[in-house]
């Protein structure tokens, strides 16, 4: 039934569609959350920005291609989900006014760069920016000292983002499904708990501190191949086995007469 309604709404002219799906939102919900995901919206519902006490706003899986400056009025917002809009290519500068934002979903859009305004969200803890067309990350990202989790899978990264090496407070780094060929050491990232690097054409696994979980080639069970190390290990093992081989007892000589 849900799919049938969505299909029907898709044929309604944009203005009528907008009124149909958000017309009931005359007052801010008691739970301070608005969920308009999957409503075939083509324009951001600006009147939602009058709900100044709003804490959670979900606009996932729509057809938005821009966001209005009025978004900056939602200064109590903690969660903003804009993922799977596909046509969203940038974020407004007014987003910097959302200084209480903890979680931002911008996954599965048309971002070719991470907007600089994201680096001004000082309390941001979780950033979902996968499935875009990002090739690098801005150096200003290291300003986000509250950031703990960053999801970057399915982008166009050819190098591991250097800025992440200067963010020791990160706990989760996901760079799955990119074009990274070489991983630098991550052993100095003292807060790191999980790094996901699978589906990259890498020739090495990222080195991590003890206790950090890795997901990718040569991760936990299979050692990273290194022919020289493997040869040295084999020789050392052979020498060790030889040194541990017990000496054969000397034959007993008959007593002399």
From TrEMBL:
InterPro entries: Leu-rich_rpt, Leu-rich_rpt_typical-subtyp, LRR_dom_sf, LRR_domain-containing
Region (Disordered): 216-257
Any one cellular-component term (Gene Ontology): cytoplasm
Compositionally biased spans, kind Basic and acidic residues: 217-228
Pfam families hit by this protein: LRR_1
Keyword check for Repeat: yes
Superkingdom of the organism of origin: Eukaryota
Pro residues bias spans: 248-257
Keywords attached to this entry: Leucine-rich repeat, Repeat
PANTHER family: LEUCINE RICH REPEAT CONTAINING 10, PTHR48051
Protein known as: Leucine rich repeat containing 10
Gene this chain is encoded by: LRRC10
């Amino acid at each position: 039934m849900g799919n049938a309604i969505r299909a029907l709404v898709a044929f309604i002219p944009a203005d009528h569609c907008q009124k149909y799906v958000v017309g009931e939102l005359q007052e801010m919900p008691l739970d301070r959350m608005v969920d308009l995901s999957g409503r075939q919206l083509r324009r951001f519902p600006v009147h939602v920005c009058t709900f100044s006490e709003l804490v959670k706003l979900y606009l996932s899986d729509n057809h938005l291609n821009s966001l209005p400056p009025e978004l900056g009025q939602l200064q109590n917002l903690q969660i903003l989900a804009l993922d799977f809009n596909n046509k969203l290519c940038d974020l407004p500068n007014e987003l910097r006014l959302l200084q209480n934002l903890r979680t931002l979903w911008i996954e599965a859009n048309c971002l070719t760069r991470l907007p600089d305004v994201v680096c001004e969200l000082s309390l941001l803890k979780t950033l979902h920016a996968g499935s875009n067309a990002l090739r690098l990350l801005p150096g200003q990202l290291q300003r986000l000292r509250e950031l703990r989790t960053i999801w970057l899978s399915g982008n166009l990264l050819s190098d591991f983002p250097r800025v992440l090496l200067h963010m020791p407070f990160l706990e989760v780094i996901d760079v799955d499904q990119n074009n990274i060929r070489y991983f630098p050491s991550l052993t100095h990232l003292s807060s790191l708990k999980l790094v996901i690097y699978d589906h990259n054409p890498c020739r090495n696994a990222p080195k991590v501190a003890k206790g950090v979980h890795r997901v990718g080639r040569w991760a936990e069970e299979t050692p990273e191949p290194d022919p020289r190390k493997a040869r040295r290990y084999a020789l050392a093992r052979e020498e060790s086995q030889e040194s541990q081989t017990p000496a054969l007892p000397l034959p007993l000589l008959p007593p002399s007469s």
